[in-house]
Design a protein that fits this description.
The protein contains 17 helices and 40 strands. It is α+β, with helices and mostly antiparallel strands.
Length: 666
């Protein structure tokens, strides 16, 4: 077995590989850029080598710098993780020339299947059904528009060397095809060092289901069942699960056997994933093969018990697979929520900054399931603008799909993240969405269910009462604490009342509290009672309660006369007042936010790539005004209404903060 492995990556996947290597007794080498000097993967590894400035095209994807790090440390093998150089055949060839083992497939297989254009041609020759599209290289935007017109809109514009949602755009008309081609080309060049683009028909109601394969160097290939990855936003997966709630045994077997046949056709070894789109009749079509470990591999590990990273290392070392296809059964159900540094209340735009609080749920077995969190950050660490915005993958397992979802709900409610915008509220909202819980999902789920973006969650009456009862009980605990303050006047004792008005989400509940040593019984005006028990004390940022015998976890912040409570995707300002206070508070005027409709504000920290208009120009609704790049993604900012540009405040190359004014309108 190898004595030392270098991980040519960063973030959570580098940490994930290090964990398996440590379990196997293998020493690890991390590489890092200036931005990652204090990163978690650097702290976890046995050795670390600096490889350059923050931009990936000057550090993590520069083959010569990785090769220098290998020579410095004497690493015998390299695990590439995903992204960066993981599907770069030149990197695999450079390692082979150096006599260093690549923990991945052989370079001919990367060349054959890693390039999405070539892989589609091979799939067609093998008799695999593929999506209609143009497989040749496209010279410029005008040719892209011409090809898109011929295929028929909508089309998917895609980087040949792409992955992770980078270099991908959906175009619904010629103008979007023109703009999308340019942005995809730029993103592909910056992220992968390869700006080749192809175009295919975008199937509007598909499910995205992928098969995990594992092959050794002795001719053995197995499939570890499927993952459902249909919950996507901007072609980036957000929620994954295994198995799929849609497939039957016959379709699963057919897809698995076809995936293995494709892998064998190109001499594939190591872990790989064959992606399919599946229609409503369970017809499946080859989409692409990812010749690397997938981001969402933990859900497969949870239902099969197989450590995929360990098996990749063992295969690279020449060992045969320790199991056969018939040994790989599906055990229970697993869910994964990707925690992104994206603000869901600002249309999921990237958010950077310091993690002032980062407290994941406790990993391991729960009463009925398992919680796992793959992460690459820590409290006090910084989220950089230079890399992918994913900071953790929260995974849960349960005996059934409903159990896995319930485990995920509680885990998300328990996960504390402060200092940046993040998508935890959105993930919580999905877990409670009736369409998701029924399994009736497609890749259009987010676009269809959240057409105006995510505005938070409105809790139903039952949940609202549970939160109101919890807030009333917590307020009583805080009031008792306040009565015990030292230095009060003699013979003046403050009594904690039993009657309170709890106001939240536009509703008010007049409640009474009957407390004892074990907890509180909260009675509502209609006679409904809820029993609340908890060990919460004032100052705790997380409240674990039971309300009517079922768990409730609240993230807690203090506001005047109440709390800021976050639960199940809802962000609530909860006032708990005496009846007289509530009466007077109802008379107070409401403060309105300032009018910013005459400004184009920068929605995220980023770099201005392009300004499309000049002072004095008349712009129409939907017209592109500027392009801002953040976290390797280009974001086109558009006019919300017809207006005339009064002043342009920013120029290409400018580095902007959130809400900096890019331009003003008359």
């Amino acid at each position: 077995m190898f004595k030392k492995i270098l991980i040519a990556n960063r973030g959570e996947i580098a940490c994930r590989v290090i964990k398996s290597a440590q379990k196997m007794g293998i020493k690890t080498v991390a590489v890092y850029s200036d931005a990652d000097r204090n990163a978690l993967h650097v702290k976890m590894a046995d050795e670390a080598v600096h490889i350059g400035p923050p931009p990936a095209n000057q550090s993590y994807i520069v083959i010569d710098k990785i090769m220098d790090a290998i020579r410095q440390t004497g690493a015998e093998a390299v695990h590439p993780g995903y992204g960066f150089l993981s599907e770069n055949m030149n990197f695999a060839a450079a390692l082979e020339k150096e006599g260093v083992v690549f923990v991945g497939p052989p370079s001919p297989a990367i060349e054959a299947m890693g390039d999405k254009i070539t892989s589609k041609k091979i799939a067609q020759e093998a008799g695999v059904s593929t999506v209609p599209g143009y497989m040749g290289l496209i010279a410029d935007a005008e040719e892209a528009v011409k090809i898109s017109d011929q295929i028929g809109y909508p089309v998917m514009i895609k980087a040949s060397a792409g992955g992770g949602g980078k270099g991908m755009r959906i175009a619904w008309n010629a103008q979007e095809a023109r703009e999308g081609f340019e942005s995809s080309k730029n993103e592909a060049a910056n992220s992968f060092g390869d700006d080749r683009i192809f175009i295919e028909k975008f199937v509007t109601q598909p499910r995205h289901i992928e098969i995990q394969v594992l092959a050794d160097k002795h001719g053995n290939c197995v499939y570890l069942h499927e993952r459902e990855c249909s919950i996507q936003r901007r072609n980036q997966k957000v929620i994954e699960e295994a198995p799929s709630p849609f497939l039957d045994a016959a379709t699963r077997k057919a897809m698995g056997e076809q995936a293995c046949a494709l892998a064998k056709a190109v001499g594939y070894t190591s872990a790989g994933t064959v992606e399919f789109i599946v229609d409503g009749n369970r017809n499946f079509y080859f989409l692409e093969m990812n010749t690397r470990l997938q981001v969402e591999h933990p859900v497969t590990e949870l239902i099969t018990g197989v450590d995929l990273v360990e098996q990749m290392i063992r295969v690279a070392n020449g060992e045969p697979l320790p199991f056969k296809q018939e040994d790989l059964k599906i055990n229970g159900w697993a869910m994964e929520s990707r925690l992104y540094a994206e603000d869901p209340y600002r249309n999921f735009l990237p958010s950077i900054g310091r993690l002032t609080r980062y407290r994941p749920p406790v990993e391991g077995k729960t009463d009925g399931g398992i919680v796992r969190n793959d992460t690459g950050v820590y409290e006090g660490g910084e989220i950089s603008m230079f890399y992918d915005p994913m900071i953790a993958k929260l995974c849960t397992w349960g005996p059934t799909r409903a159990d896995a979802i319930e485990e995920m709900r509680l885990a998300l409610d328990t996960f504390e993240v402060e200092g940046i915008g993040h998508n935890l509220p959105f993930c919580s909202a999905v877990m409670d969405h009736p369409r998701f819980t029924s399994g009736n999902i497609t890749t259009a789920f987010i676009a269809e269910e959240y057409p105006e973006g995510f505005q938070g969650v409105t809790l139903d009456e039952k949940m609202l009462r549970r939160v109101a009862a919890a807030a009333a009980a917590m307020n009583r605990v805080a009031e008792i604490r306040r009565t015990r303050i030292s230095g009060t006047m003699d013979n003046h004792q403050r009594r904690v009342g039993d009657d309170w008005v709890v106001s939240l989400q536009g509703q008010s509940f007049a409640v009474s509290i009957d407390a004892d040593k074990a907890g509180s019984t909260v009675t509502f005006p209609d006679g409904d009672t809820l029993r609340v028990e908890s060990d919460w004390t004032p100052g705790d940022t997380l409240a674990r309660l039971t309300v009517d015998g079922t768990p409730l976890v609240l993230k807690v912040g203090k506001v005047p006369m109440g709390f800021r409570l976050r639960v199940r995707g809802a962000d609530l300002k909860v006032l708990v007042q005496s009846p007289r206070q509530a009466e007077l508070n109802a008379l107070m005027p409401e403060k309105l936010p300032p009018d910013t409709s005459r400004f184009l504000l920068c929605p995220m920290p980023g770099l201005v790539v392009k300004i499309n208009v000049a002072e004095g120009d008349e712009v129409q609704e939907g017209q592109a005004l500027a392009t801002v790049e953040a976290m390797k993604m280009e974001n086109i900012l558009r006019a919300e209404k017809k207006a005339v540009v009064k002043k342009v405040n920013a120029a290409p190359g400018a580095s902007l903060k959130v809400d900096d004014v890019i331009m003003e309108f008359e």
